[in-house]
Design brief:
The structure is a single chain. By secondary structure, the chain is an alpha/beta fold. It is built from twelve helices and 20 strands. A hairpin with a 2-residue loop joins strand 3 and strand 4. The longest helix is centred in the middle third of the chain and has 17 residues. The protein is globular and about 65 Å long. The structure holds guanosine-5'-diphosphate, 6-O-phosphoryl inosine monophosphate and magnesium ion. The site of guanosine-5'-diphosphate (GDP) has 24 residues, from helix 1 and strand 3. Guanosine-5'-diphosphate (GDP) binds next to helix 1 and strand 3.
């Protein structure tokens, strides 16, 4: 089988971009299957930091094809900005980047509708990135959306105008100022850039690639706890962020998937609204935020920080069929004397070890085990043999609870700060 999946097990920002970049040399194709420019995937190498929003994180490896699948929603404005930056850095974008004809387009009015939706929710707002994700997926499932393939048709402008008219009718109920003409200039420039790329029927392309023995890595965006079905609904994104999303977002059958690499931080973060049982809204959280530079790669917002949550991770591992784990940002905990691990919740008076139907507006009291910190600078380590004993114990403890091996340990943002504990079976 030729397809592996790499996805986030928490509330996003686990470090997916970094690990996709690290693993890319093992693959021929990297494919994004859902989400859009709400994602911010960071990779660092040779002293330079790159943040990708729409383009897969394999783009810096010459010769590797990077596919934006049908399940992704594309903002042509953001895509153009990403492409321009990559071209400046010498990446051969036109040779490497392929876009599904079936991917849906984020219109300027989708972003306005996102804002309107958040305003109308008041205090109950989702904390959306306001990139137009929700309204675009709503138009997709509502069967109104515009797709990449449409931009090549003679009547694209009429299709665009008809959808914008619908949006304007909705927006007329809201009381905020906007200048659509100002937003449309960059949008149509982005459409021109999109037209200069290679559109493909990515389901055919990928299945042909599988047949000819090519290796594919599917790159998730967001995280399992933001999944529209299984996340902390309604404080979620609007797509299926889980392994199953690979099938619908790329046209790959379930029996083609082999390894599922689940990524998590050695602690936990969340950006935006919604429940977070192990949040440390205090000096501990502050310390994690400061050391871990926990600010959104897309919006710059402060990320909420707290301890690792095993019931939530076990749930994510179950939903995704995770076969191996990557533990990120262990180095952020280098200076902590003790490290807490939430093993259970006290929920409605009971001690439970699973993720319940809803944790919104419920008192969920985390039950913690405390482990000794390793008090060692991990950032210079490159070999699993040199890991400090307390970290080895922490890893073994997590593996015992999660019942999946931790094959990658990341100890810094750079490509090189990655420790392989077991050769990946690819
Ligand atoms: P993604 O959305 O899952 O790709 O993750 P983000 O890029 O939004 O956030 C992860 C952040 O942590 C980025 O700033 C990375 O450069 C950084 N990072 C990744 N792995 C590590 C690590 O092991 N240690 C530290 N200190 N930073 C890391
Ligand atoms: P990556 O791929 C972290 C969060 C938002 C908000 C909720 C809904 O970088 O891990 P949306 O814009 O989708 O309507 O926002 O989801 N969110 C993310 N949080 N990482 C992301 O992506 C996210 N994408 C969306 O903060 O709470
Ligand atoms: Mg991110």
């Amino acid at each position: 089988m030729a397809v592996d999946v790499l996805l986030g097990l928490q509330w996003g920002d686990e470090g997916k971009g970094k690990i996709v970049d690290v693993l890319t040399p093992k693959y021929d194709i990297i494919a994004r299957f859902q989400g859009g420019p709400n994602a911010g995937h960071t990779l660092e190498f040779e002293g330079i930091k790159h943040v990708l929003h729409t383009i897969p994180s394999g783009i810096f490896h010459k010769g590797v094809k990077n596919i934006v699948g049908n399940g992704v929603v594309i903002d042509p404005v953001v895509l153009k900005q990403e492409i321009d930056k990559l071209i400046d850095r010498g990446v051969h974008v036109n040779e490497q980047l392929l876009i599904s004809r079936k991917a849906h387009l984020i219109l300027p009015t989708h972003k306005l509708l996102d804002k309107a939706s958040e305003i109308s929710k008041g205090k109950a707002k989702i904390g959306s990135t306001l990139k137009g994700i929700g309204p675009t997926y709503m138009d997709k499932t509502g069967r109104n959306g515009l797709r990449v393939g449409d931009v090549f048709g003679a009547n694209f402008k009429e299709m665009y105008d008809a959808l914008v008219e619908k949006h304007n009718n909705i927006l007329s109920n809201f009381d905020f100022e906007f200048d659509l003409a100002e937003l449309e200039g960059p949008f149509f420039e982005g459409i021109e850039t999109l037209k200069s790329l290679t559109p493909i029927d990515s389901e055919h392309y990928l299945n042909e690639a599988i047949k000819s023995g090519k290796k594919i890595l599917a790159e998730g965006a967001q995280g399992t706890l933001l999944d529209v079905d299984f996340g902390t609904y309604p404080f979620v994104t609007s797509s299926n962020t889980i392994t199953a999303g690979t099938c619908t977002g790329l046209g790959i059958a379930p029996n083609k998937i082999e390894n599922v690499i689940g990524i998590f931080k050695a602690y936990c973060t969340r950006v935006g609204s919604g429940p977070f049982p192990t949040e440390e809204d205090n000096e501990v959280g502050e310390m994690i935020r400061k050391i871990g530079h926990e600010y959104g790669a897309t919006t710059g917002r402060e990320r909420r920080c707290g301890w690792i949550d095993i019931p939530a991770l076990k749930y994510a591992i179950m939903i995704n069929g995770v076969t191996e784990l990557a533990m990120m940002k262990g180095d952020v905990l280098d200076s902590f004397d003790t490290i807490k691990v939430c093993t259970h919740y006290i929920y409605e008076g009971d001690k439970i070890d699973y993720f319940p139907y809803t944790i919104n507006d419920k008192e969920v009291i985390p039950v913690y085990e405390e482990l000794k910190g390793w008090k060692t600078d991990l950032t210079k380590l490159t070999d699993s043999e040199t890991l400090p004993q307390n970290l080895v114990d922490y890893i073994a403890y997590l593996e015992g609870l999660l019942e999946v091996p931790i094959s990658i340990v990341s100890v810094g943002p750079d490509r090189k700060q990655t420790i392989n504990r077991k050769a990946l079976a690819v």
